[in-house]
Please model this.
Amino acid sequence: MRLLRIGLAQINPIVGDFDHNLGKIFSFVTGAKEKEIDLLCFPELCLTGYPPEDLLLRPAFLRDGLKALYKIIEFTKGKRIVLIVGFVDVNVDIFNAAAIVSDGELKGVYHKMYLPNYGVFDEERYFRAGDAPLLIELNGIKIGITICEDMWYPIGPAVTEVVNGAELIVNISASPYHMGKRELREKMFSIRAFDMLTPVAYVNMVGGQDELVFDGYSFIVDENGEIIARGDGFEECLVIADILFGDVSRHRLRDPRLRKEKFRSMVKQAEAKLICIDGGKGKKKGSFYFKQNGIKNPLSPLEEVYKALVTGVRDYVRKNGFKKVVIGLSGGIDSSLVATIAVDALGAQNVVGVFMPSRFSSTESKEDAEKLATNLGIEFRVIPIEPVFQAYLDVLSPHFVGTEPNVAEENIQARIRGNILMALSNKFGWLVLTTGNKSEMACGYATLYGDMAGGFAVIKDIPKTLVYKLALWRNELEGRDIIPKRVLEKPPSAELRPNQKDTDSLPPYDILDEVLKMYVEENLPIDHIISLGLDPMVVLKVARMVDKSEYKRRQAPPGIRVSKLAFGRDRRVPVTNSYRENDL
Amino acid sequence: MRLLRIGLAQINPIVGDFDHNLGKIFSFVTGAKEKEIDLLCFPELCLTGYPPEDLLLRPAFLRDGLKALYKIIEFTKGKRIVLIVGFVDVNVDIFNAAAIVSDGELKGVYHKMYLPNYGVFDEERYFRAGDAPLLIELNGIKIGITICEDMWYPIGPAVTEVVNGAELIVNISASPYHMGKRELREKMFSIRAFDMLTPVAYVNMVGGQDELVFDGYSFIVDENGEIIARGDGFEECLVIADILFGDVSRHRLRDPRLRKEKFRSMVKQAEAKLICIDGGKGKKKGSFYFKQNGIKNPLSPLEEVYKALVTGVRDYVRKNGFKKVVIGLSGGIDSSLVATIAVDALGAQNVVGVFMPSRFSSTESKEDAEKLATNLGIEFRVIPIEPVFQAYLDVLSPHFVGTEPNVAEENIQARIRGNILMALSNKFGWLVLTTGNKSEMACGYATLYGDMAGGFAVIKDIPKTLVYKLALWRNELEGRDIIPKRVLEKPPSAELRPNQKDTDSLPPYDILDEVLKMYVEENLPIDHIISLGLDPMVVLKVARMVDKSEYKRRQAPPGIRVSKLAFGRDRRVPVTNSYRENDL
Model:
């Protein structure tokens, strides 16, 4: 019986921390040995972490990466297990590569052939593309190797490998999360497997790295495109499955698509290199598709986004060496949600909430902030900004004489709050989490160096309407209102002038978010958006706000990407930009 | 006599401002007609401005760009002149393209073949690469078209064009400035011309766009590689030269390298497309290499950097719709230089200097700041921060109880100053220029939201040692000390605590800048730097400071790039980054 026990090591590496990543890899190898796994696959660039960005241009970094690889090779000496490990190969040029390692030997190296250079990806900046599909033969089973983007083209190295005899395709990946990504990924891999009549094993990393969160959800699809194993979302795990290869070839007899000369001739049949490895035959194992740890259910959509945020916060804080965070609590929905996420990520003892009232703060705001802090069990401090605000007004009064109060006085208050949080950060080493949402970021409805001051912008990619949904969902999960009910019900206000409401400056959030989704995320032309029945003046106003506030976003802290198009490396718009689409 | 009068229209476009760019192009066409120019070449992507970045992903932007091109075509109706204009072609996909336009017709389109995707360039993100070299024949002279990067490879489309008969290569370019770039560029083009036995006409844009400054310096080299015409640095101009083509072919008879079959067979001789254009023969013109406006002398090295900074400031301020700027004057060298640059860029009436003394400010600082303002003839304001600082200390005192004064109290002062400048900006619409230099940016010796608060960081890419040189040079140019002598002589201090000196925290600037140049710009491994004889502890300390302050730089305002490797789009390092090279 031609059978392979495959393991997918869904790990959370740290960019540039070779020791940490090696330790992680060794412990998964040890765990896999205990489970008698034949082939253990690690994610793309798991040795360096992903994306290492311009660290790749430092010779010492490349050298240290190769040293780490050789420690892995050493570690496998005498062990009957084959590893596929993502690393940076240095061979005349640098390559995004997969090492095939077994029993103290580097059996082969595959170079990624398709380099993504769009959205958040810049791989053409760093790597030379490979040009050689690679097969390994293990226990008489031919396995084709691919890396991430290689599988996002209908005709890529996997097809060449299959035409050259592969009965299983392995794809090692570092695929960042956005809403809907898991579904898309599984659907696509399912059809790739169906088209190639070949099972596909996909291993992804987990964890946060700056703006990116990797969701894991490694999986295996069979030759029909059915999911036969799936790992957890956002958690490290070892996915295990037994694949019986009699079935693959039997299936191909009945479904002869791969036989068609017309199809085979579409594929550039570069003689795929074949490496034979003795994996230690004759072990007895479970029967067909012995789903060692089964098919984990994916998270619900809101749970998934929430968990992405929790993961992003936890990893940004921890991987950057911080223990505690501080958050300005306004009594509003945004800071309430951010504090809740922070507690879920770091524990209540590591979160400090600071309420900073001004002359415009309502008593309700203070009550709501305090109640939230009590509900979360976090430290709560009150630091009034009024004396500082008055001192600013005094020193500025000779300069502001004859002017009406405007955004200048409003921003001073926001900036005092920013300074106070930063002073606490500087004094106690706490990281400041900012609380601005995507709707605000899009419109520039935020104060640079004020509420935008901080190390990490937790909900920067969450539109206001989704902020409400997440808060409601979290309360429901808890079975009580950790985020006070009134916070969810009162109209949003920045409280920087008397009776201020967000709707003084912005369209209602349901309309705003609809326009933003179309203009920013879907990149629709303005006249197209208007033709869908939206108020032209509103659409144009929103578009102009987005265009004009790029300078603020340029100085915003990084934040967690959960949408298909986040502000940040995803959307690279010049600050100096006179383009105004559809001037009316 | 086969003779061509060529014009290089070295213009300063604005990204996204099609009307402005069209107006500029029309006026240069009109000027060129008056001078009986046959062929007028505009820079790469001059119609959109460069780099348009993700505007290229907006369908409406592409559509408006094509509309603008058709206005140019229309404009040439009845005019006997051939234009080469950089634009974005949309044809199944998008291309970085050159339009050949004459007499109301689009005669042909060339697509850039080599797309740069390193340093500050991201063209693989946007464009499909072209695959067809293009020749035009004008007055019986065959001319090969190339775009920027195409010429930075020893074998590119130009060689194919020459092998197919080109006697002149045109290169339209958008090549950003850095120190030494002009020399490198002219040397390289000289050798390209020498290798191909073919004159090359190179047109570059001028002006600032966010972090980039384009230096112009368009030029023509003859078939020997000698410069026969050069335009100004950092100024718009029309470079004109007459080229006599009898000479080119005569030269090739004597130097038969292009005849060698071995060399010709190295070139992929894709049949280069040929477009014949009737340019209106028989005009009488001057004799061989009639250098219409001659060879402009390049600027001296310091003058060149200074002019890059002036250009960068002027264009950032003006293109973003600002009239006046405000600068915090500390009485130190950095803010003095920035104010001087601002005055040279915008005029003294558009620059406001604000001195913001604290309890730690010396009387010398105030005297120096005021003297500078007087020398420059700018408005000078004094806004003491002491009452605000005291108010902060008061509200924070219950929280800081039992702690020693540290960087928290220091940063509060810097942030008050940032807030005051931003308040003036918000009240009066002035842009805040920040004054931090590259040495500080590199080491994180700057306060986020404090002295880093502002719209544009003028000397962000100027190391401290170069700051001194530029200040001295500017004083010498003026023939008197506009920047007071004492400013140049006193030891640098942030004045945020008693008797503070920069050297309390940093190595002496001459050593610091040397290490930074090697570690950041030259990307040398740490052990290599140490092996050059530098103190290992100093080198390691500097490298650690650079590595650890990436989070600050991520939130810094954009600033002018003048070095081969500036902080910004040039150097994309993760914030979350545990890599520490050579931990001792």
Chain A has two domains: 3-277, 301-504+549-554. Residues 452 and 556 of chain A are 6 Å apart (CA to CA).
